[in-house]
Amino acid sequence: MKGASKLRAVETALSPRQIALLEIENWRKFPTPRECLVAMMDGRASTSDDWAGQVRESVRLKHKGAKPEALHRLQREGLREAWFLLALAGRCLLDLEHDREAIGLQRRLVHALTMVLFLTAQSKSEWLEQLPDPLQEAEKFLFRVRGLQDAVRLIEREYFGGRSILFEETEAWLKDEVASAESLVGLYNQTCNLSVGVESQDSAFKRARDLAAEWVTYTRAEIHEKLDEREDATALLKPMFGRE
Q: What is the pTM of this model?
């Protein structure tokens, strides 16, 4: 058996979940989402057709002798499981990438307000009421980036066995933003004798858990839509729309 045939045999022997996890590992061989997308376009990375075919073949081999209707149902369930994991990892990543520019602007705002605060203190001037409260802005910045990081960690532990799902560059960027926020908050706490950024463990966990639950719900609804199960998708999203 040649190398390519051996690899194919191993891939089709994997479960749908294992195929999805392997696909995410293949994504993460590229440092950024853009490089991964380019690799998919030029054939250096697999596409949805590749892993979907592996899932169908894996299910077929596991259930040899199954009647066509039963096999179709089993393959559909296998695709649902793998598709959900891949889409969930993708949603986490896309949400972070979507927020990246806004988070950068928020960080620069906090840095600017911090500078104005210290200049105001040095000159013994009054703080301009038109400006946002720098302490509150620093706290909001910290809670935002830490909440994103904690939500990703929850998803990784619950659905991916603790495996990393972010690209290396994205993971490093988020880590740096959290460190920057913690540094700013630490500066306020040391120089102003304040307790900025102190959040109870219960409150912090709820913040991250709610965001993770939102990612999961939207992803499940997305998969229902792709599988033409619109009623199931609507039922999942209805409580969220009602809450808003």
A: 0.85
